[in-house]
């Protein structure tokens, strides 16, 4: 075996290991998405809702900043910028609602991601270049499904009228994001 054979074999092993890791990351993200949706379906207390909504917005903003840096696709770039703009707006509206709410304090608003979303961000950063857009869009669909469930549950059953109004206001925006991300995801080459 010559030196080229060793290099090629090493490169193939590295690519295979990266592919396996990416596949495992996708499975972890999918399982996390199911857990998140189950939690969102039962979030009717103001402190839990505020925490979940704030983390959702932070995740959307952080993941979309990564997308702006990594994607080469103009449609994905445009969607990522819209996520940053709309979720920054949503965060500001949530902050205002929290200030007006008798059920929560501004100290209830987290300023960092939870472990599950940190892992999703890590997986997004680690996604191979040729799978980045699909990874980003799949995560976006899962995150917006969870956020839609969160907003609908709180809008219908939440314990604070000010926050229920917030959930009612932002629900259509999140629903439109979900529809848009699903369309983008299905248009991506496999």
UniProtKB/TrEMBL annotation:
Q: Would you tell me the protein name for this molecule?
A: DUF4142 domain-containing protein
Q: What Pfam families does the record point to?
A: DUF4142
Lineage of the organism: Bacteria, Pseudomonadati, Pseudomonadota, Alphaproteobacteria, Sphingomonadales
Domain DUF4142 spans what residues?
Answer: 46-184
- InterPro entries tied to this protein: DUF4142, Ferritin-like
Cross-referenced PANTHER family, in alphabetical order? BLR2558 PROTEIN (PTHR38593:SF1)
- What are the boundaries of the region Disordered? 1-25
Where is there biased composition of kind Polar residues? 1-15
